Amino acid sequence: MKAISPLVASALLLIITVAGGVIIYNYMINTLKAPQEYAALSVVSAQMLVDGTTVVNVKVTNIGTAAAQITEVKILPDGINQPVSETIDPGTTKSFNVVIDQALDTTASHYLVIVYNNGETEPVPIQVIK
What we know:
The protein folds into two domains: about 1-35; about 40-130, Immunoglobulins (Immunoglobulin-like), CATH 2.60.40. It has one helix and nine strands. The protein has one helix spanning about 5-30, and strands at about 40-50, 55-60, 70-75, 80-90, 95-100, 110-115, 120, 125, 125-130. The strands form two sheets. Strands 3, 4, 6, 7 and 8 form a five-stranded antiparallel sheet that branches. The chain is rod-shaped, with a radius of gyration of 28 Å.
């Protein structure tokens, strides 16, 4: 029985190595290119009208690729957590009102945080309308 020549063996090993590299390369490229869906909210404006009750008008844009479900609005530093049920589709801007049953101090600074399915926004200053 004759053995294969070193030249043929080297060629076979080179072909197997290149084929394995191409397979791994294609797998990694396809995995990294897979579309990721996420929701990300950006608060455009937050305005507060205080007149016995407090109404906060919030304008939010979803800059993500999936719908965002808003579950809560927090007003800092007052510690107010108001439940909300709003859905914002990707690439759209929506305005909604949050009614709070107590009057807030109009001379203090207030901040708004929106809680949604992927986390929460950064605190945004609320403009007081008198």
